Amino acid sequence: RSSYSCCYFVLPCCFFDFHGKYSRRQSKKTQYREYLDFVAQVGFVCGFHVEEDCLRIPSTKRVSFIGKSRTYPPAEHALIDNQITQFINSRRTCAVATCDRRAGFKHKDHCDSLCEEVGSEPPEDETGTAGTVWMPGFQPREKVEQVRNCASLPRDFVDEVVLNVANLLLNAAPQKSCSDMRGGNMNTWNQGESLSLREVAEHLNKETLKKLKSEYGGLQTLLKNNHQVFEVLNGRVHIRDWREEKPPSKTKPEVKRRLSAEAFKTRLCWFFIHHPDGCSLPSEACPYAHGTEELR
Fold first, then answer.
1. What is the per-residue pLDDT across 83-140, written as a single tens digit (0 to 9) for each?
2. CA distances (Å), origin 212, targets 147, 200, 202, 225, 231
């Protein structure tokens, strides 16, 4: 509806209608095929010659639709716009039988007695707001989607939260330590205590929590993003002990082995810098750099 000259491409995936989940109406078809027919039908209603294609992608949902040309002249734009409005309202107010996708959709043939005939004048300005012109209350997604996975938080803020949580876990059990026997020598390394996410949150100040709540996943996402330091299992936060990490598989494909080798020692080791006992691994075994001179 944005303009007569527009084209479209759509790769249907999840089964949704205009106002919620798509309701099946034909048991003789698979759910996927029935939904594909519905999406194609929408294209026909909007006045497009709908073409179907199968993409070469590793997915079970790979059938796409392309609309490159119109089925009507520009002079009939107002008529088609009215037909589109009726179709959208019919999906909301009545159960419309799925039509033959080659025949398109005729509103009066199916639910003239059931659906409220709601017409709309064609938009004077085709670049007008969709929410006011095409469908009351509709809010399109912002052109620039805000990243809310803690990745855009300031680095200083993230580092401060990581250090605070790590100190909290270390101080929760000051006498507790893990023992590691190497060459007959007893080496102790404090792994700290495990706390629930709720217990950790209770020890953070209000400003920090407020900032984290504006992100999807909040505290848990931030801690999982910093997997070098933390391990979050079943809602509990642990300090990661790299001695317990499984060594890379020798059967790993050559490409993956090469990529993991290239990522070796490209970042500083958090434990070497901040942990009171240093890193639990010797420099040659740690995947992170013990000092700037080891950075690659």
1. 998 998 888 764 444 434 434 444 444 444 333 333 444 444 444 444 456 666 667 7
2. 13, 13, 13, 13, 18
Distance, CA of 296 to CA of 292 (rounded, Å): 9
28-42 per-position pLDDT tens digit: 889 999 999 999 999
Tokens 């084209």: give the residue. Answer: 7
d(CA 187, CA 179): 6
Residue 50 belongs to what H/E stretch?
strand 48-54
DSSP assignment of 171-200: HHSTT--EEEEETTEEEEE-----EEHHHH
Among 235, 250, 249, 287, which Cα is nearest to 265's? 287
d(CA 253, CA 163): 36
Distance CA 90, CA 79 (A): 17
Helices (runs of H) and strands (runs of E) counted in the chain? 10, 8
Ordered strands of the 195-196 beta sheet: 195-196, 236-239, 230-233
Which spans in 2-76 are helix H? 31-45
Closest residue by Cα to residue 115 from 83, 81, 76: 83
Structure tokens, 42: 């929408």
The answer to whether 173 and 40 have CB atoms below 8 angstroms apart is: no
- By the 8 A CB rule, do 223 and 283 touch? no
